[in-house]
Amino acid sequence: MAGSGSLPTGFGELEVLAVGTVLLVEALAGLCLNSLTILSFCKTPELRTPTHLLVLSLALADTGISLNALVAATSSLLRRWPYGSEGCQAHGFQGFVASLASICSSAAIAWGRYHHYCTRSQLAWNTAISLVICVWLSSAFWAALPLLGWGHYDYEPLGTCCTLDYSRVDRNFISFLFTMAFFNFFLPLFITLISYRLMEQKLRKTGHLQVNTTLPARTLLFGWGPYALLYLYATVADVSSISPRLQMVPALIAKTVPTINAINYAVGSEMVHRGIWQCLSPQRSACLLLGPRGGKDAVSVSDTVLMA
């Protein structure tokens, strides 16, 4: 199906349409919410803090995932991949960079929250900038390796999107998979779990637990875990024993992560929500923030308020 209009093996006309529609909804939802988040950071001075820079990095990564899903949705609805083999490699690389950056940015936010709540000191700009640079350079490095021969990008079973090829079960694939998974899934998941666990233990003693300490780790585990299981299964068994339709499920689940992250870190955050509201309705937002007597009764937005 990659280069023609014929249906891929294991899929019917209605199923191809359903996958394309689901991808389109996921892409548009993720793009809208994360674009509002990015816009709020650009428009709202109170959000330009080191801590929120980590959330901006996550929003940019999730926007990349949503753009990747939009391309996949378009080709699915066209019932063919119109961009050729080079386009497949570019699509796989772009999606892999965005996915790895999203996972690692979530871990960076977890560490940043632990640093703030448990040390009671503000995150420095140089630390936040260094974290963001490391996240994106590391993601680009690992995503570039399949282009250089360690790993390989190829079409997913539907033939309208590209990802890391797990059908080539050889030493090259297995060595790349386990190394990449350790540094870009299991290690970030461990950092996220430990950071929120330590933060929860400390804040419960004071009775001021103001953050959701379970949703971020669950999002990583349930959003990217199915992909990890599929790849690990491919290393020990014949992946062709899994139906093509079932093989597409992890991709569809992963494309929901940008929307969940936007709701958790932006829409569900009082400060970022104010920023989004200010972008959508500047005059009313100004009234809400300043109050009826202007600056005298102004509500100060402190840098110490983090995302819930």
Automatic annotation (TrEMBL):
TM ranges: 16-41, 53-73, 93-111, 123-145, 173-194, 215-234
G-protein coupled receptors family 1 profile domain residues: 33-265
InterPro entries associated with the record: GPCR_opsins (IPR050125), GPCR_Rhodpsn (IPR000276), GPCR_Rhodpsn_7TM (IPR017452), Retinal_BS (IPR027430), RPE_GPCR (IPR001793)
GO cellular component: membrane
PROSITE patterns for this protein: G_PROTEIN_RECEP_F1_2, OPSIN
Membrane topology, from the record: Multi-pass membrane protein
Gene3D superfamilies assigned to the protein according to its UniProt record, in alphabetical order: Rhodopsin 7-helix transmembrane proteins
Primary localization: membrane
Subcellular location per the Swiss-Prot or TrEMBL entry: Membrane
GO BP terms, alphabetized: phototransduction; visual perception
Molecular function as annotated in GO: G protein-coupled receptor activity; photoreceptor activity
Keyword field contains Transmembrane helix: yes
Pfam families, per database record: 7tm_1 (PF00001)
SUPFAM superfamilies (alphabetical): Family A G protein-coupled receptor-like
Keywords for the protein's UniProt record, in alphabetical order: Chromophore, Disulfide bond, G-protein coupled receptor, Membrane, Photoreceptor protein, Receptor, Retinal protein, Sensory transduction, Transducer, Transmembrane, Transmembrane helix, Vision
The UniProt record lists the keyword Magnesium: no
Protein function: Receptor for all-trans- and 11-cis-retinal. Binds preferentially to the former and may catalyze the isomerization of the chromophore by a retinochrome-like mechanism.
Name recorded for this polypeptide: RPE-retinal G protein-coupled receptor
Taxonomic source organism: Ursus maritimus (Polar bear)
Primary gene name: RGR
